[in-house]
Amino acid sequence: MADGAALDLDDLGLDRGAALLLRYALADLQVGAALTVHGSAPALDVHLRAFARAEGHGFEPVAAATQLRAPRAASGAPHIATLRRGEASAARWVGAERAGAADAEGTVAHPPQTWGLAARGAAVEAGGPTFAFQLAWREQLWTEQAGELYRQAASAQWDPETAIPWRAERSHPDVVEHALVQVLTYLIENETAALVVPARFCAQVHPHFREVMQVLAIQAADEARHIEVFTRRALLSGLPLGLSTTGGQTSLKTLVDETDFALASFLLSVLGEGSFVHLLGFLHVHAPDACTAEIMRLAAQDEARHVAFGMAHLGRHAAEDPTLLARLQQAIEHRHDALRHTAGLNAEVFDALVLLAAGAMTPRAVAAGHAAVAALVEQMDAGRRNRLRRLGFTADRAAELSALHTRNFM
Amino acid sequence: MTGSRTDDALVLGAVAYDAKVVTIWDGFQRWFAERGFAFDYVLYSNYERQVAAHFDGAFDVAWNSPLAWLQAERVATARGCKARAIAMRDTDQDLTSVIVTKSGGPIRELQDLRGKTLGVGAGDSPQATMIPLQHLAEQGLVAERDFAVRRFDVLVGKHGDHVGGERDAARALMAGEVDAACMIDGNHLVFLNEGTLSRDGTRVLTQTGAYDHCNFTVLDGLPRGDDAAAKIASFTEFLLAMRYDDPAVRPLLDLEGLKQWRPGRTSGYRLLADACDRFGWLDPFLRQMGAA
After folding, report:
1. Collapsing DSSP states into helix, strand and coil, what is residue A168?
2. Domain range summary for chain B, segments of one domain joined by +
3. pTM (whole model) above 0.90
4. Do A50 and B90 touch (CB under 8 A)?
5. Closest CA to B120 of B134, B108, B133
């Protein structure tokens, strides 16, 4: 009892959690100070010796005869042993470092790879493993809007089972249904690219930028849902799926192959998904049934968020890195060159869009459908030019670059 | 190994009782190298071969079990040289072993072991066999005379470094195959926590006195060389300077199960020496080494 600190374990043994009380009591003491331990659990003296040795504390047993004479604790338990606090329990945290701060203002420009998977703001023990997250510079990916975009996305998630009127009446002609299935087939492969690309970068983002990681994860989840509902709608009529063309896949492969996050995000989100927002809006308006119309409306909402995230982080990136716009321009030109000899949007998809807008195989209806698709292409172009200007390109350069965008839309 | 004797590295001999031994000594090798100290190691599959190789001058320092320490010390004495324990883990000091039995069974006190069967660890385990049997002998209970012994020989030659023998003995107690079982105090807590032993169904029958475990052993004058003593002195200094708050070395200390290296002491081997003298356990090895 020399130093005064005492712990009454009552009948709690080290096999039932007493280590927790011991650790807390020892943590309050100076190194070298004594803790008088009382207790009545079986073999407590045996286990206190083992505990103290393993955790680097001193152990002084109390002889059975002394136990009988020594004052008892409030529980009536005898004095079993005295522990002396060692250095090791605190030594583990020497050199520990806070991994930034938890709130969105708490990011650092270049988090060390040794912070690894730790929560932003956690105290990280020194000497841990070194990770290899490739996207580890704030400038590369950060936007202050990421947290809000994630929260919006999380609250806007919809359940395909209940959100879509799968049993809505379908009274359109077979030829229109064939056209719809072809468009859906095209959408599925485009959305697959839009899932694969953020999913891959998600695993490369330093978890310090957790909001970005979360946005990319939910973006991939959005695309998974789109693939699901497009497929389910395509199968409703029992028709086989449509065509997948070499030109379409070649165009998408340039997105999948892009290893630079900024460039991939620019080509996919700003240009591709930006164009798709218009396409889905077109399909919502010209959908032959209520089920298809609702699918397109919900998918367009999701895509608009993806575009917003791309615009937000690239806008910030461009403001910090004066070379970014030149690199983005180069990326469009490079992709255009790579796709120069491909067919672009296949005739089947183009015709299917016309037919969906036409609603019938009459010359007058087809003329109206064709005009609607031409208007869609103009809308897409106007949207791209607008976004390119917001990123900092001049109006002329924006028009020039928009014209080089893939004829496959995505 | 052959190459290492041609350079100026201090070479350690250790027994590969587990795959993690490679991780541990590779890690220490890197730690020493970063401080400009040449260190290498050679692994043996059993302590007897390691002790014999030590006397052949195959390496400078042995990481010895307590039984290997006694073997080295006795051979050294017979050959007119001196074995020294230069360092040990903090966790090598003041261990005890316990003998556990079932609560409410026929064994109420120590003398009730007569005619019963005691489960022990490997035949060469100081902590799970030799010291508990000596403890009982001091109380008048002699193995194979007053009670039967059932050995759980996991990895013989490794002097009980592997916990498997103790765990098998504990399982045999729960299965009713033995009436009592021997284990280190810390393993008793482990076996309770992992459920190998029943909390309410078992109790500690007796506890041995405190004893020490492994140490770094050197043999004065072996191997021969002008700088041998200086290398060993540097090695000891480096060991004692390792700190648990150093993140570079802490994972290795955790793997090896210590918080701090301490200067070696040999006062904690009395119980084991008494056991070996009583039961003659060292004799075959000492005869083999020409030291009987």
Report:
1. coil
2. 3-92+212-288, 97-207
3. no
4. no
5. B133
Q: What is the pLDDT of residues B114-161, one digit of tens each?
A: 999 999 999 999 999 999 999 999 999 999 999 999 999 877 788 987
Does the residue A208 lie in any domain?
Answer: yes
- φ, ψ for residue B16, nearest 5 deg: -85, 80
The SS3 assignment for B179 reads coil
Class of domain B97-207: alpha beta
Pairwise CA distance, residues A149 & A214, whole Å: 10
B23 lies within 8 A of chain A by CB: no
Domain enclosing residue A149, as ranges = 138-404
Q: Which residues of chain A have a CB within 8 Å of the CB of B248? A: 127
Q: Percentage helix, strand, coil, to 5, in chain B?
A: 40, 20, 35
Q: Which residue has the tokens 């060993």?
A: B232
Q: Is B258 helix (H, G, I), strand (E, B) or coil?
A: coil
Q: How far apart are CA A354 and CA A375, in angstroms?
A: 11
Looking at the structure, do residues A25 and A169 belong to the same domain, yes or no? no
Please tell me whether residues A85 and A217 are part of one structural domain: no
ipTM score here?
0.91
Q: Do B95 and A43 touch (CB under 8 A)?
A: no
User: CATH second-level architecture of B3-92+212-288?
Assistant: 3-Layer(aba) Sandwich (3.40)
Judged by CB atoms closer than 8 Å, whether chains meet at A86 and B259 is answered as: yes
